[in-house]
Design a protein that fits this description.
heterodimer, A: alpha+beta, Ubiquitin-like (UB roll), DNA polymerase, domain 1, five-stranded mixed β-sheet, two-stranded antiparallel sheet, 6 helices, 8 strands, 28% helix, B: alpha+beta, Enolase-like, domain 1, five-stranded antiparallel β-sheet, binds flavin-adenine dinucleotide, binds FE2/S2 (inorganic) cluster
Chain lengths: 213, 332
């Protein structure tokens, strides 16, 4: 279910993904996709936004616990939306080809390459970026952030946000893990400075910190 | 490969919620439509502007395509089930460890979290001439750049070449062939069931496709029958680096043994042809034979008969021979 918020920030009704087929036109602002299957479930999503003229493109994304309203092209990747529409430039783009891990973000707590997932595919799911690791109320660092701060695990640190997200997925899904398990959990992130040993030290320390809270 | 970091070219996106709607959309848009699963193969093509579908149909919102159902001892795996979910599933691990091993060695954790079993078996070849947009046979042209005299073809095929020398890159494909899996394929006219062995096609059958899927087809589920549940399995993937890498050669094998003798066998090798190669002759040779070093040696020798290396991939012959030997030895 997607909790829709209209343009004024007022919640409207929930729309189930199961009940509609969505057609999005990249170039146009037209609401109807001529000659294609198009079925809206009694208004809801479309009624709330049709007046805007970009009905199908206006999404509400759950990013770092906030509902963010954003105009998304059908061919836009999540990393693009986060960096260039939502200003969350902590997420890096290295290869843009699922080959480096710099763009790693969490979708429903699971690590994904932001460069290789369509933003439209994460509607109704919760996205976490490196900006969302800190406790929004107290400002406290997460166990992973604390461990990296203490251990100084990176050199240039371009790879750091991606590694922090994979570490977060690891410590939140696995209560205790070995160094080998940490290495395989982080094997989808590359570090060109080759700082792997210190990065693994941080992952192990993050595990300890997570267990102690 | 040129890396372009701007937007992918535009397409029209559909996010159907049911299999029926997905099939209707695929039928309606025919050759202009592209089914999008995890997108990890698809998006490379789009970003490089080599394949430019007008319509993209995202299968991610169809609950019926995700999940693993039991069918007796067998399992029906929805095409959109992630590779991580396949690798972690207790039933897959206890009955068909071969498939769990294969799925857990694909690429990286992030790719397994998003990549699907259906996408993994339907992915296109990684021949870099083809993937860089060269107008080769597979792309509808009239030459193969990978077998030209100057070509770099260390990763290409040693078996089954027919003008094109590309290989199948999937890790789960040989495991599914070894397990006698079948694929359910749906289109507007109905559902057909294709044996895994026939799902993967070589260039002699269709030079522009890797699978039996035609425009309008939707792979809905992969069925692993009970036959090999709990058998002895051997999976080994050899690659240049321990993460992220496609296989150079992979072997997937299943055995039933009794008293040191092999009663039933499946031996499948990938990375050597455009399709996972089931070694029927080797299976016949080892069936009824003792699971001995002698059998293993003979199996390895037989496996590579007829193999024809290209300029830079002669090592694949030895690799394939030795992997088949190791598989047979594991039955002892
Ligand atoms: C850097 C990198 C490294 C990789 N390394 C490996 C590796 O070591 N081993 C390995 O096996 N794979 C590897 N892969 C491939 C990876 O496993 C992908 O997940 C897989 O190729 C495609 O799966 P997907 O779900 O992302 O599908 P997509 O990319 O979305 O789809 C792939 C193709 O299958 C078609 N398709 C998908 N699902 C269906 C369906 N249900 N019905 C009809 N057609 C369908 C699509 O139209 C498309 O043509 C790698 C990929 C990358 C990017
Ligand atoms: S930018 Fe996504 S993996 Fe490199
Ligand atoms: S610290 Fe420089 S890339 Fe990792």
């Amino acid at each position: 279910m997607i909790d829709e918020v209209d343009v004024n920030g007022l919640p409207t009704r929930s729309v189930s993904r199961r009940t509609f087929i969505k057609g999005v036109i990249a170039a146009g602002a037209t609401a109807s996709t001529a000659g294609t299957l198009f079925r809206a479930s009694g208004g809801g999503l479309f009624a709330a936004t049709a007046l805007q003229g970009t009905a199908e493109r206006l999404l509400t994304l759950n990013v770092n616990g906030q509902q963010r309203r954003v105009d998304v092209l059908p061919n836009e990747t999540l990393a693009m939306t986060l960096r260039y529409k939502l200003g969350l430039t902590g997420t890096k783009l290295g290869c843009d080809r699922a080959e480096c891990g710099a763009c790693t973000v969490l979708v429903d707590g699971v690590n994904h390459y932001g460069c290789s997932i369509l933003t439209h595919a994460v509607r109704g799911r919760s996205v976490t970026t490196v900006e969302g690791l800190q406790d929004p109320e107290t400002g406290a660092l997460s166990p992973v952030q604390q461990a990296v701060l203490e251990g100084g695990g990176f050199q240039c640190a371009f790879c750091a946000p991606g590694f922090l997200m994979s570490m977060t997925a690891l410590v939140t899904s696995t209560p205790s893990f070995t160094r080998d398990e940490a290495a395989s959990a982080l094997s989808g992130n590359l570090c060109r400075c080759g700082d792997y040993n210190k990065i693994l030290d941080c992952a192990m320390r993050a595990g300890e910190l997570a267990r102690s809270v | 490969m040129a890396t372009i970091r701007d937007m992918m070219p535009a397409f029209e996106l559909f996010q159907p919620a049911t299999v029926e709607d997905a099939v209707a959309l695929l039928a309606e848009h025919g050759r202009e439509a592209w089914a999008l699963a995890g997108g990890l193969d698809s998006m490379d093509w789009f970003k490089d502007r080599i394949k430019r579908p007008r319509v993209v149909i995202d299968l991610g919102g169809i609950p019926d395509l995700t999940g693993i159902q039991e069918r007796g001892e067998g399992l029906d795996i929805g095409a959109m089930t992630s590779l991580s979910a396949v690798a972690a599933d207790e039933r897959v691990r206890s009955r068909f460890q071969l498939l769990a091993d294969a799925a857990s060695q694909v690429a990286t954790p992030q790719i397994r979290n998003q990549g699907t079993l259906g996408g993994n078996v339907s992915q296109d070849t990684r021949c870099w001439y083809y993937r860089s947009g060269w107008p080769c046979y597979r792309a509808g042209g009239n030459t193969c750049y990978a077998s030209a005299p100057q070509a770099m073809n260390r990763e290409h095929c040693i078996l089954g070449a027919s003008r094109c020398v590309a290989v199948n890159p999937s890790d789960t494909a040989p495991a599914l062939v070894a397990l006698d899996a079948t694929m359910d394929v749906r289109n507007r006219r109905g559902t057909r069931t294709v044996a895994a062995e026939d799902y993967f096609v070589g260039p002699a059958i269709d030079i522009t496709r890797m699978t039996a899927l035609k425009p309008g087809d939707l792979l809905t589920s992969i069925r692993v029958p009970a036959d090999w549940a709990g058998a002895r399995f051997y999976f080994e993937k050899v690659r240049d680096r321990g993460s992220w890498d496609f296989a150079l050669v992979t072997v997937a094998a299943a055995f039933r043994t009794a008293g040191g003798r092999i009663d039933q066998a499946r031996v499948v090798v990938n990375g050597v042809a455009a399709y996972p190669v089931r070694l029927h002759d080797v299976e016949r040779l080892v069936t009824g034979a003792p699971a001995s070093e002698e059998t293993a040696q003979a199996a390895g020798d037989l496996a590579v008969q007829g193999a024809r290396p290209l300029k830079y991939n002669g090592y694949k012959l030895a690799l394939m021979r030795n992997l088949v030997r190791r598989a047979v030895r594991s039955a002892a």
